[in-house]
Every structure is written in structure tokens, then in C-alpha cells.
Specification:
- The protein is built from 17 helices and no strands.
- With about 450 residues, it is an all-alpha fold.
- The N and C termini lie far apart (about 85 Å).
- This is O-antigen ligase.
- InterPro entries: WaaL-like.
- Keywords: Membrane, Transmembrane, Transmembrane helix.
């Protein structure tokens, strides 16, 4: 049955792809969460689901670039150099299969960034299509969480680490919960482009349900990143009342839930009590990674390793603290060890370029509130990525696709606004010149 349902999902996905072609691009983040649900509900078919997810993105990219053509731009040139560089590094890995498998995951969300950016450069495409997909993401999470508890879905129920009488998330856990956190974080941006009151009420309602669900899952990162994200946003966004209002609303919803379901939360923490020691060791290991990897790379004892990395995305045994097969967890460790100084700098320069390109848009006559919202959102998303780099997740497609897809959309909107302003200014200049010429002749 698991195999049949997974195949049905893939067939439906590709039927929609054949019908919509490049117009499926705004909804890929919805397909990502559905693939996550299937992947962790039907663990035996995870390989098929992974193939279906990759095929969806790369087939969409093929159709889009075939129709529109592929263009290197200042906004994407560094990331495609990074992808080409890391692709060749995979052939020098001691575990090629794992390296190329993770490479395909990482390249997926970077390609999605360029797809979104290129797609929305065309002003006929409405950004609301992309933003509305976030409400579908939240609805999927809420429905699946309810179903997981009613019908005992997900591999968490076979785990001895969680008691069957405690609240479950169907194994949509850890880094995979972050896509729902970001869906809540992006409310100010989403509402800026959607004035439909009914939609706004519906989205806030979904968010107010999602936050308690994240809270009761006892996955600290998914809740703390919402708090950290709004703090960063408030620091940069001049219209602070908007973000404060949402923050208070969500805090109120979370408080009501805690007061009414405190027993459930206690059970969840008791179910995780035996994991606290493991978590503390993992945190210690992540902290050690910064020092161990830095010393390994910047000592230049092995110049080739320092410059070009080693065993990209497939490193094992770098830390001897836990066990010999332990992977590096932090983004810093994985990037610096696997891609070397060259790869690490390419990635950092790409992130820096995104910020600079957005910052420079202030020179052009773009709506002040819109620009402030754009720039604050980009800083917030990148700030959250920096925070999350400690816990890892560089290989996770779902929330990374949201982060980079949203940044790509913002930069595309800014580019469109700049081009429209250039056209309007050109028209005004021509009209002024014609008027002056008419006056001279008269």
C-alpha cells in the first residue's frame, strides 16, 4: 500500500507538471511539504519519494530554461560557479554516492532560487501565487498533525523514545519543521501583497494553530527561530507596529495553549527526558566542530584539503568524540571541510551579493515602505540561516527552498520595479522634450 500511494503521488505531481509546465514553479514549496509527509509516513518508499522530488524540480527547470533560456546574472553567477565547483569535487570523494546524493539536495534549492527569480522577472506573474502556497503549507501541516494523532501515522509511533500516549507529529520533526516556522515568519511580507481580509484572517488562524503545534512538538529550534526572526525583523523594519502586533498575537495563542494543554507538554518533555544527555553531547560536538575544522583547514597541513576540501558532504570521523562514523553537523563544518576555503568563500560571497544587490535598490525610486519591507525580510532570512547553521540543515531542501525562493522573489520584484521606473522616467523625459520642442516652435 505504501508503494502504491507513493507512486500515485508522483503520477499526480507529473500530470500537474505536464499541464502547468513552468507555472508550477510558485507551488514547488507545497510539493516539498507533501513529499516530506509521504517520506516520513511511509519510510519504506523514501527512496522513490526522493527521486520524485528531484525529478519534479529538475524537469521543471528543464522546461523553463528551454523556453526562456538560461542567463547568468550578477544575482546568480556565484552560486552556479559554486554548484559547478562542488559537482566536480564529488568525483574526488571517498563516498561518491553519498556526496552526489547530498549535492543534488543542495543544488535543488539553489536552482529553485534562480527559477523563482527568473520566473518573477516577468511582470505578468503575480507574486501572490507564490505567497498563497504558504497557506497550503500550513494547512498541510495542521491536517497531517491531526491525522498523525488520530490514525497513528508516521514512524515516530514505532520509536521507543516517545510514549504512544503523548502528542505526536508523525515524524515531521527537527529541521523539517522549520518550513512551517518560516511560513509564520513571512506574514508581514505576505500580507503586504494580499489585502484580502478573509485570506488574512484564515492565514493568521492557521499560524495561531501552527505555533502551539510547534511548541508541543518540543523541538526548540522551530519555535526559537520564530522569536529570533521577528527580533531581527523588528530591528531593521521601520514600521515596527506591524511585527509587534503579530508577535503579541502569536504569543497570546501560545500562552493559551500552554495554559490549557500543560499536561500534554509535560508528557512530551518527559518522553524526551532520556534524550537530554544525547542532546548535550551533540551540542558539545557541534561547538567542537568550529574549532576542529578551523584548525584542520587553516593550519594548511594539507594544502589541497585546505583549499579544495575533502569528501564533500560525506565526511566521517573528523570528530572522535562520539563515534568514528559521525558526520559533521554544522553548516560551517560541512562547507569548510567539504569544499575548502574556495568553496566556503564562494558561498559567503553569494550571500553577501544577495544583501548588496537588495541594499543598492534604495538608490532607485522604489516605494519606501516596500523597499524597507524587502530589505528587512532578506536580512531576517539570512540572519535565521546563520543561526540555523549551528544546528545544521544545509542539506534540507524544504526550508532552504523557502528561504532562497523568497529572497529570489524579492530581488525579482525589486528588479521589476527598477525597470518600470526606468521606463516611466524615459516616457516623462520624452514627453517633456516634446513639450519643450512645441513651445520653441510656437
Amino acid at each position: 500500500m505504501d508503494l502504491v500511494l507513493s507512486l500515485v503521488l508522483i503520477i499526480i505531481t507529473f500530470v500537474n507538471l505536464m499541464r502547468q509546465r513552468e507555472n508550477i514553479i510558485p507551488y514547488i514549496i507545497v510539493y516539498n511539504v507533501v513529499f516530506d509527509v509521504f517520506n516520513y509516513t511511509f519510510d519504506s518508499t523514501s527512496g522513490i519519494i526522493a527521486i520524485g522530488r528531484a525529478a519534479l524540480l529538475y524537469t521543471t527547470a528543464f522546461f523553463f530554461y528551454k523556453k526562456k533560456g538560461f542567463k547568468l546574472r550578477p544575482v546568480n553567477i556565484l552560486i552556479f560557479i559554486f554548484l559547478l565547483y562542488t559537482f566536480f569535487l564529488c568525483f574526488f570523494s571517498n563516498d561518491f554516492n553519498e556526496s552526489i546524493r547530498t549535492y543534488l539536495r543542495v543544488s535543488s534549492y539553489f536552482i529553485y532560487f534562480d527559477l523563482i527569480y527568473s520566473y518573477y522577472l516577468d511582470k505578468k506573474h503575480d507574486p501572490n501565487k507564490y505567497f498563497k502556497s504558504f497557506s497550503l503549507v500550513l494547512v498541510t501541516y495542521i491536517v497531517y498533525t491531526v491525522a498523525a494523532n488520530v490514525f497513528k501515522l508516521g514512524t515516530m509511533y514505532s520509536s521507543k523514545q516517545d510514549s504512544d500516549d503523548s502528542f505526536q507529529t508523525g515524524n515531521i520533526i527537527g529541521d523539517f519543521l522549520l518550513q512551517f516556522s518560516f511560513s509564520v515568519l513571512l506574514i508581514p511580507l505576505i500580507f503586504f501583497y494580499n489585502n484580502d481580509k478573509k485570506y488574512r484572517i484564515f492565514y493568521i488562524l492557521c499560524s495561531c494553530i501552527t505555533i502551539p503545534l510547534l511548541l508541543v512538538s518540543t523541538r526548540r529550534t522551530s519555535v526559537l527561530i520564530i522569536v529570533a526572526g521577528y527580533i531581527i525583523f523588528l530591528f531593521f523594519y521601520k514600521n515596527k507596529s506591524t511585527a509587534i502586533l503579530y508577535s503579541l498575537l502569536f504569543s497570546f495563542a501560545a500562552s493559551l495553549f500552554v495554559l490549557n494543554f500543560s499536561d500534554t507538554i509535560v508528557k512530551r518533555f518527559e518522553a524526551r527526558a532520556d534524550r537530554l544527555e544525547v542532546n548535550s553531547f551533540e551540542a558539545e560536538g557541534r561547538t567542537l566542530e568550529y574549532f576542529v575544522v578551523s584548525d584542520l583547514i587553516f593550519s594548511f597541513k594539507d594544502p589541497l584539503h585546505s583549499l579544495f576540501g575533502k569528501d564533500i558532504y560525506a565526511e566521517r570521523g573528523v570528530l572522535k568524540t562520539f563515534y568514528s562514523e559521525r558526520h559533521l553537523h554544522t553548516d560551517y563544518g560541512k562547507l569548510l571541510h567539504g569544499t575548502g576555503i574556495i568553496g566556503f568563500l564562494l558561498y559567503i560571497l553569494f550571500i553577501y551579493t544577495l544583501v548588496i544587490i537588495s541594499f543598492r535598490q534604495r538608490r532607485y525610486k522604489i516605494n519606501g515602505d516596500e523597499y524597507a519591507l524587502h530589505f528587512s525580510t532578506i536580512i531576517m532570512l539570512i540572519g535565521c540561516k546563520v543561526i540555523l547553521s549551528y544546528t545544521g540543515g544545509f542539506h534540507v531542501i524544504s526550508y532552504n527552498a523557502m528561504v532562497f525562493g523568497t529572497i529570489g522573489l524579492i530581488l525579482a520584484i525589486q528588479k521589476r520595479s527598477h525597470q518600470e521606473n526606468l521606463i516611466q522616467n524615459s516616457i516623462i523625459r520624452n514627453q517633456t522634450a516634446q513639450q519643450n520642442e512645441t513651445r520653441l516652435h510656437s
